[in-house]
What does this fold into?
Amino acid sequence: MKLSVIGCGYLGAVHAAAMASIGHEVIGVDVDERKVEALSRGEAPFFEPGLQEILTEGIASGRLRFSTDISEVRGSAVHFVGVGTPQKRDGYAADLTFVHAAFDALAPHLSAGDVVAGKSTVPVGTAASLAPRVAETGAVLVWNPEFLREGWAVQDTIDPDRLVAGVPAGEAGERAAEILREVYHPSVAKGTPFIVTDYATAELVKVSANAFLATKISFINAMAEIAEATGADVTTLADAIGHDARIGRRFLGAGIGFGGGCLPKDIRAFSARAEELGKGESVAFLREVDAINLRRRARAVEIVVEALGGAVNGARIAVLGAAFKPHSDDIRDSPALDVAVQLKGLGADVVVTDPAALANAERVHPQLSYEADRDTALTGADAVVLVTEWDEYRRQLDPIHAASLAKGRIVVDGRNCLDPAAWKAAGWEYRGMGRR
Ligand code: UGA
It folds into this structure.
């Protein structure tokens, strides 16, 4: 099928390449010339496992192209819109500027019978407000949220755990859902749940899923705070409650909390939208979820200060990790960098290392020192602070080797991912988050 993807950021670039990889003919459009040039050369503009391969393959096959010229979307049966919806500068709400610009640019090129599939994460009510605009052209709007995780984006797009389509009532909506089923034929054929619903539900599925995940993380981090006050161990607690299938162990990783381009801004945008709807109280707990999350970053800094005897001034601190999570070079709202910046602000001599995110980190926080080589970063450190659980740190860093490089013997495990016994045995003073 001929498809277009408007917006070639994280979501759009992966979606375009993934759709080409399952056999569609895809044109990706973005206003950013440099991005389009890089993508056209088959270069992934960010670190995402597997993306490079499907981009190269798609371009070589002739099924995947990128352009800055929106008129090239003409003739596509489905137009996916996957532009960003960042947090507004002056508040918590989502900024829909890019969504409106994309629909404005797209509208003149739509033909009767086309399907426009919104993929951006938007406040509930957005699709209903955009639908008449699309309908004027004879096309139909569906809302088809995306649930990909960075680091697993290719796999999540090609083989998602569910597909959701918010469609208008009536025959046009039914037909549009059928077309989307054809687009996602490999998933549909293998029995992946395909949920057809109304616009509002589809939009809410997305934001409520992220709100639930954020709440789960903040719940366990709240338990970490209680564990710290009582001498309990939050990791054992998470293991124990996680055995209850109704609770589940995933996303009960206590530590310095969630960051990235989605969870933080999505819960804030959800709160703002609920306020507008006069239902702020219904999701008032999300403010608390946000507050707990931010407190854990501050707590990690406090633990480092305590471990270093009350002051970090002049201490050399090796910070392992800059990305908001492993398998990503994304530093948007990264708790890891936040901890590094706070320590630097307290006068520490901070050296940050990360296998993928250093270039991005350096652009945004030039005041920090960066070292690509992990061992060089560790050399002479008074304290080691793990803030992103890359395998390079949690599996491949031998505590005896680390002790041969560092000056001090303090390790702060901001992700509760190290084996405390092994580090203690190698002479380290181990400090976790909510761990004994
Ligand atoms: C999140 C959702 O998981 C995706 O389903 C969704 O599609 C995406 O947002 C989006 O809206 O686009 P992502 O931001 O890639 O995906 O990252 P997650 O894997 O959800 O992790 C978010 C943050 O939570 C990371 O900083 C991670 O370190 C942290 N986290 C995760 C914890 O602190 N503890 C955990 O147990 C799990």
